[in-house]
Amino acid sequence: MSTSAKLAISIILIALGVATRLLPHLWNFVPISAIALFSGVYLGRRYAVILPVAAMLVGDLFLGFYSWPLMLAVYSSFILIGLLGGLVRKYKSLETVIAASIVGSMIFFLATNWAVWQFSPWYTKDLSGLIRCFTLALPFFRNTLAGDLFYTFVLFGTYEGAGIWLKARKVGWQLIKNS
């Protein structure tokens, strides 16, 4: 893929990430994990790290920043998901993309809720506090999982569908040209 195509896709993905964070939505039903995964698979490691972080930073400029330990957990989880996309690239199939999306949701859930438990005053710093934190976060996990799967299907489906369409169009032009 050309650098200009990667740049155009990057701008679209960052705009999508920012817009969906700013518009009304279900908690955690946003495309940032899908953007990270997609970037890791199709654009490369550098994009897999930069794009989700850029979308988050621009969104946080409008929404407001929050505690740095939690921000570090959130941003780091998206970087890990992007790097996971690099692994998926080697074995890309519908199954591995779905599995990676689910694993990405779990990475985000575990990292961010551990950070909330560890760094906020809301929970006791013992096993019961940790269990309570993760239990109360389950509705957010449902939305995270649903959003990640939805946006993963949208991004990967659009990209793969466009590729199939472009190949078919090229073959059609070749048939017309040769007749």
Task: List its salient traits.
7 helices; Arp2/3 complex 21 kDa subunit ARPC3; elongated; 0% strand; mainly alpha; 179 residues
Structure commentary:
The chain has 179 residues and is mostly helical. The protein has a single domain, classed as Arp2/3 complex 21 kDa subunit ARPC3 (Orthogonal Bundle). It has 7 helices and no strands. The longest helix has 41 residues, at 138-178. The chain is elongated. The two termini are 31 Å apart. 28% of the residues are buried.
* Coarse morphology: elongated
Please tell me the CATH architecture by its name. Answer: Orthogonal Bundle
CATH fold description:
Arp2/3 complex 21 kDa subunit ARPC3
Proportion of residues in β-strands? under 5%
Q: Can you give the helix content as a percent range?
A: over 70%
Structural domain tally:
1
CATH class: Mainly Alpha
Alpha-beta classification: mainly alpha
Characterize the largest beta sheet: strand count, sense, and whether it forms a barrel. none
| SSE topology string | HHHHHHH
How many helices does DSSP assign?
Answer: 7
- Radius of gyration (CA) equals 19 Å
The poorly predicted ranges are: none
Extended strand count: 0
Provide the residue-averaged pLDDT.
93
Query: How far is it from the N-terminal to the C-terminal residue, by CA?
Result: 31 Å
Structure in a nutshell:
Helix content is 84%, strand content 0%.
